[in-house]
Amino acid sequence: MAGASVEDTLALFASSLRDVKERIRPLFAQHRSAANAGLFLDGLLSDERRKTGWMRAEAAGDPGPWRQQGLLGRDRWDADMLRDVVREYVIEHLADHDAVLVIDETGFLKQGRSSCGVARQYTGSAGKITNCQIGVFATYVGRHGHAFIDRALYLPKSWTDDPTRLKDTHVPDDIGFATKPRLAARIIERAVSIGVPFRWVAADTVYGVSEVEQTLRRANKGYVLGVNATHVFNAWGKPHMISGTAAAIAETCPASDWQRLSAGAGTKGPRWYDWCYLELAELDASEFNADATGQLDTRPVDPTADR
């Protein structure tokens, strides 16, 4: 849309928004519910900084927030089907076979005990332990743009061990306790099973564990996963055996092997990190995928090279 007029841009936006509303229409049994969902979207896209129920209702011309509260709390519609619609829309517009699936979590600050999954737990949103909900999210990132395509609500054991709380918040009977890495593995498995095009998965130290790694190996996907300094590695297939914690192995690398690169711009400028590439193992392809053969290419990838 480079060089497009404001009028053309607004017309395209309005047309795209109508398309989205048409796509989600089949999720609702009643026309009224679908209309309220459309008004809910309009409210979320408004320029109000705080989008409370009352503010969204005012923007929709309602006398109070009851219609939109009903949409979120009492109407019957399938949230997983909505997730599928969103994912299909994203892939339709942003598909990229070299894309990265970024797994991360975020917290939603909440007061009280009634909201599903709310508990005192650590969230990076506040930088401390506080009353909140935690969601695990997957973002599709490619050369054409980025967008969320999946999510899962984390339920602490204080919830999954309390049948009354689960029943009161309408948690399905087949939902039990799952760690955040398990939720992430399910999200990845879901993306792979339906053929979402991506080449890599990136995640921080919460998810740099064997469960997520094994899921990606079986799917023959590349990954960049953070680990704690105390994580133990045992290398094989190299002239010099390497074994020990991540911190101990890093200390053995000479200073000349390290490069300082920015991981992107932050609120205080470039986020600089020191990077060092070290081959820990030569793995046969069958260790990633039982149907594959041959030697895995462990050479570092030049991100600037043409594909």
Structural class of the secondary elements? alpha+beta
N- to C-terminal distance: 26 Å
* Assembly type: single chain
What's the Cα radius of gyration? Answer: 23 Å
Q: Output mean pLDDT.
A: 86
Please mark out the parts with pLDDT under 50 across 5 or more consecutive residues, or reply none: 294-307
Which shape, going by the Cα principal axes? Answer: globular
| The number of domains | 3
The helix content, as a percent range, equals: 25-40%
Task: Count up the helices.
Answer: 10
Strand runs, count: 10
Give a brief rundown of this model.
Helix content is 34%, strand content 22%. The chain is an alpha+beta fold and 307 residues long. It folds into 3 domains: 8-77; 95-207, no CATH class; 228-307, no CATH class.
Based on the model shown, name its key terms.
307 residues, alpha+beta, 3 domains, six-stranded mixed β-sheet, two-stranded antiparallel ribbon, 10 helices, globular, disordered C terminus
What can you tell me about this protein's structure?
- It is a single chain.
- The chain is an alpha+beta fold and 307 residues long.
- The chain has three domains: 8-77; 95-207, no CATH class; 228-307, no CATH class.
- Helix content is 34%, strand content 22%.
- The chain contains ten helices and ten strands.
- The strands form three sheets. Strands 1, 2, 3, 4, 5 and 6 form a six-stranded mixed β-sheet that branches. The chain has a two-stranded antiparallel ribbon with strand order 7-8.
- Strand 3 (128-142) and strand 4 form a beta hairpin.
- The two termini are 26 Å apart.
- 16% of the residues are buried.
